[in-house]
Each structure stands twice: as structure tokens, then as C-alpha cells.
Request: fold
Amino acid sequence: MRNIYKLLNIQHPIIQAPMLGVTTPEMVAAALRAGCLGSLPLGDADAETCAQKIRATQQLTDQPFAANIFVNDIPPISEALKQQYDLVKKKLTELSTELEFEVEFPEIESIQPKGYPSQLPAIIASGCKVLSFTFGNLDKASIDLLHQEGIVLIGTCNSLEEAIALERSGIDMICVQGIEAGGHRGTFQSNNIPMNAGFSLLQNVRAAVSCPLIYAGGIKDKRSIAALAALGADGYQVGSLLICSKESALQAFQKERVDRLKEAEIILTRSFSGRYARGIKNKFIDLFEDSEFILPYPYQNKLTQPFRAAAKKHLNHEWLSIWVGESFRDLSRDSTETILKSLQ
Ligand SMILES: Cc1cc2nc3c(=O)[nH]c(=O)nc-3n(C[C@H](O)[C@H](O)[C@H](O)COP(=O)(O)O)c2cc1C
Reply:
């Protein structure tokens, strides 16, 4: 069945992308007011934080929305990883002193996430009926558990093989993420730089799987949606279009940086998190990309987090991540509701 209206309880087949660090409960509520699916990003937050964020959003709306989590593998802490961690920590500590940032870096043992299975009881208990995920696939026991609870599952693919693997494992819908997309790649079968352009990927996936497809990457207006509908998409997920919206958590100096953006400044980088993500090139990326100072995800992400927070305090966009996709021009300051209605 490809009726996503019923499965997602929506009036328009448009999905506000989950964007950790940018999406607020207010953004989710505004997407729901526009008759679209709102998505609340939980990343790898612990169960208590997941419950709190869901509750905060439920206080703003009585409509159902999607929760979104990261389902990546977590590499064990080996001696080699510990040594590399200390090397990157030293580098960041020196940089912080140079920049006069006050940063406390955590020890590696304190930042190892518990993994997504520990989040699921809180998500189920909160009553969320749609769960989207990225960076991997759920294990069979989790898929069975979530289905027993009547939860619709949306996985993310960056390749045809990933789409086929998601469908075979019983995932209900697939978010097909094109190379244009802002933020992290959902890919889970490759560590290489992502190559698959959305246009071809969507057509390849449409020909190979029968579940509903949500396309993400580069959607700008009604015309992009019409083109994607012709290529076989059932739903349309928009992220970058909303990063400068009224409800975005980005601060004024970050939105102003986005306003001044030039095409060549939008790149894929592993520097901040250890996984490829699309965002704005800056001094941090110049220093870290292709260097020995990149740990595997999620360790790089966790270690650079307090440094990025300090850069934010200093309103310094050269040392923090701003994720944005290739359709970056003239991003609106309107409300999420107004922007999403303009796509209908
Ligand atoms: C700032 C930002 C943060 C993102 N965070 C997440 C996230 O937490 N979870 C997720 O599944 N996708 C995340 N994404 C990817 C989006 O779901 C989506 O694939 C992408 O925004 C679509 O491309 P577009 O930005 O060109 O609209 C993020 C994207 C951006 C721009």
C-alpha cells in the first residue's frame, strides 16, 4: 500500500525534516498546522531526554508527529581508539586556548552512547506512532517490537542496495536521500564519500522497491515537488528550506552566514562528526578535513560538541557546523507553517 496520507495521518505529503540542533518543538507544531508531518529529532539522546523532548512537543500540539533517531553502530573503545581520541582532544585543547574558548572536553568513557534500543521504551511509552531513523537499520527484534506497537517505520537510504535492504527487513517506508541534501548522509553500507545524485537514485529505487518513498534533498518549491512526483516519489522531505525559518534554533549570526553563502562554500565534510555531512566550509574544516584528527562517528561528534558550543557562545561561525544543502538560495525567515503551505 502506498497511501502515505493514511499511514502518516497527514493532509499533504510533505515532511518537515528532523534536524538535530535546528528543529524545535515549535517547528514540529508549525509543520502539523500546515497539514504536514512534523519530525522531532532525538539523535542518540538518552531515554529521559527523549521522553522530555517528546513531552515538550506534545504540549504544543495534539496532532501525532514522527520521532527520529540515529541507529548507527557504536565502535567499542579500544586502546588504539583511546590514543587517537587523546590526540584529537589535545589538538582541540590547543585550539581552544588559541581562540580563548573555555571548553571542558569529556573523557572517552563518558561519551559512549547506550545505543538506540535503550531509547525505544521511552518512544513507545510517549505514544509516537511514526519513527524515522538514519545512519543504519533497526535490528529484527526492534522492528518486531515497534510493529507490535503499531508504529510506522521510515528508514533512510543513500543507495539502491540500502533501499533494498531496508524493504527486505520490513521497514514500511524509505526516505531516499539525494547527494544534494543538507546535514548528515544516512548511508550505512559505505564509508566512502557519497556519490549518488538524488535524480538517479530515486528512479533506481522506485524501480526496485514497492513501499512508499519519501524523497529528501534539494526541494525548493512546488516545481521540485512536481518533478519528484513524476519520478515516483510519494512524499517530500524538506530540511534546508526551514533552517532560517522563524522556529529554527539557528541564531541570527548563523542565519546571516547562510544569507551570504556562495555555492562553492557548500561541501561534504567528516571534520565535525566523523560521518559525511553537507554544510558550510570554514576554518575548522580547512584544519581538520583529511587530517589525522578525525575519529570514527560518534566519537568525533561528541568530542567536537563542546568546542562547537563555545564557538556559538562567541558567535563565531568559523569554528562550528552549519548544515545546509545545495538548494541554499534565498532561504526564508517566514514561519515553518507559511513555508510549508507554499509547497502545497
Ligand atoms: C541542519 C540539518 C540537520 C539535520 N539533522 C538530521 C537528523 O537529525 N536526522 C535525520 O534523519 N536527518 C537529518 N538531516 C537530513 C534531513 O533529514 C534531510 O535529508 C535533508 O535536510 C534534505 O535535504 P535538504 O536539506 O536539501 O532539504 C538534517 C539536515 C539538516 C539541513
User: Anything to note?
Assistant: Residues 79-99 form the longest helix (21 residues). The chain has a mean pLDDT of 97.
